[in-house]
Design a protein that fits this description.
Elements (H helix, E strand, L loop, with lengths): L2 H8 L5 E9 L2 E8 L15 E5 L3 E8 L2 E7 L2 E5 L4 E4 L13 H11 L4 H7 L4 H18 L7 E10 L3 E8 L4 E7 L3 H17 L3 E4 L3 H10 L4 E4 L1 H23 L1 H6 L4 H5 L7 H10 L5 H12 L8 H16 L4 H12 L1 H5 L9 H16 L6 H12 L13
Parallel strand pairs: 2-5, 8-11, 11-12
Antiparallel strand pairs: 1-2, 3-6, 4-5, 6-7, 8-9, 9-10
Helix pairs in contact: 2-4, 3-4, 4-16, 5-6, 7-11, 7-13, 12-13, 15-16
């Protein structure tokens, strides 16, 4: 097979043809020229325009052939477009926008960048880190333009820590498809408001259910832009608050009773926090012994286990009756952390009970947040929030890739 045939099979050359193929400084140089049977297309609207002049030669990196660098060389024409009312560089179907690489090469690098750190991809294919970054940006920009959010109805909202110093990203996920649909730095009202502005009034109106934690800025924004959507507080965040309250009871009791009590309950933290069926035989035996000592932590443990019944109800009415009963138990337990937790769920009772109208939670979101952290750890962090968000879109957004003549990976 001739090299010219291989290039034609892997590069979109509609309206162009190969003039020559040579080797310069260890790289294959493919020189292209226009096919005069076709009119040049406007680079903005891709409609035929009138030839104006020729620009200097540009080189475009292509996918290496047997580890031999390949470059396309072409002198782009400028066209006068009546529809765009101006003069623009012609459309070159192989180019990745204004980048000095082909669309095929951009997709090739971006595909590997989903699996490996960007620096490692650059070292494998003998290019710069900036080339890999540019390729990922090209693919992400294309995917964001092509995605369709018209069927978006159930979303989960959560924040993740980007680096030390309370630097957060607010992420919005589609609970149906388990994909990231939006991310921005910060966790303020303005941050989340930008997402609803992106959806627009019609997109906000289509939302049926929104799951988030009990962070007040998120609640206010959701009620402002999507009041018709059912706001459900995340089950896992509520259980996390309950666990923190139980552990705080243990800490307070140790502080109150001193060193002897600390020696008694040492290494027992997870006895009180784990599910009973996950305890080992040794842990079960020690827990049985501690339960006979009438400890405060044991009362907190019993409250925690009784709260498990709340999630098992089928209807909102029965769940509300149980919550009222459990609230009385907790507020009369003489345990401050449990009392504080009880008042917290009383203040957010409606969002808690909405779970029985629409059983959604952020379990999927927590899993995707873990994947987002893996993306960061794999690269040992990103210097800027913008680059981290680009990487998250690329790995978690399930975005459409540009269409190519040939699949390289």
């Amino acid at each position: 097979m001739l090299l010219k045939t291989i290039i034609k099979e892997t590069v979109s050359l509609q309206g162009f043809k190969i003039e020559s193929i040579g080797k310069i400084k260890g790289a294959l140089l493919v020189e292209l020229m226009p096919d005069l049977r076709y009119n040049p297309l406007c680079g903005r609207c891709q409609k035929p325009g009138r030839f104006r002049d020729i620009r200097p030669q540009r080189h475009f990196k292509h996918v290496p052939l047997w580890n031999i660098p390949v470059e396309l060389a072409y002198c782009p024409r400028r066209v006068s477009c009546q529809d765009c009312v101006g003069i623009y560089v012609e459309h070159m179907p192989w180019a990745a926008g204004k980048r000095r690489m082909t669309a095929a090469y951009a997709c090739f690098l971006a595909t590997w960048a989903r699996l490996l750190p960007w620096k490692q991809v650059a070292e494998l294919y003998h290019c710069s880190w900036g080339s890999v970054c540019s390729a990922v940006r090209h693919v992400v920009d294309y995917g964001l333009q092509k995605r369709d959010l018209s069927d978006l109805s159930l979303i989960g909202i959560d924040e993740i820590s980007r680096q030390r110093g309370h630097n957060y990203l607010t992420n919005v996920y589609d609970l149906k498809t388990s994909t990231l649909i939006w991310s921005a730095p910060g966790r303020t009202k303005d941050t989340l408001a930008d997402f609803f502005k992106l959806l627009g009034p019609q997109g906000c109106q289509q939302l049926k259910g929104i799951c988030c934690d009990m962070w007040r800025p998120y609640i206010d924004v959701v009620q402002q832009y999507a009041p018709q959507a059912l706001l459900v507080f995340d089950k896992f965040h509520i259980v996390s608050h309950l666990m923190s309250a139980v552990d705080q009871v243990r800490r307070d009791e140790i502080h109150e009773k001193g060193k002897d009590h600390k020696n008694l309950v040492t290494h027992t933290r997870f006895l009180w926090l784990k599910n009973p069926w996950n305890l080992t035989d040794k842990q079960k035996g020690r827990l049985s012994t501690l339960e006979k000592l009438n400890l405060k932590i044991n009362r907190a443990y019993l409250l925690k286990e009784s709260f498990r019944q709340f999630w098992e109800y089928k209807t909102k009415g029965w769940a509300a009756r149980f919550l009222k009963k459990w609230f009385w138990w907790a507020t009369h337990s003489r345990l401050k952390p449990m009392r504080n937790f009880a008042w917290m769920i009383r203040r957010h009772e409606q969002g808690l009970l909405n779970y029985f109208k629409l059983r959604i939670d952020n379990g999927i979101v927590e899993g995707l947040n873990n994947k987002a952290k893996v993306v960061s750890h794999r690269a040992y962090g990103y210097r800027t929030a913008h680059m981290y968000i680009t990487a998250l879109y690329h790995c978690l957004g399930n975005l459409q890739m540009p269409k190519l003549l040939h699949r390289f990976v």
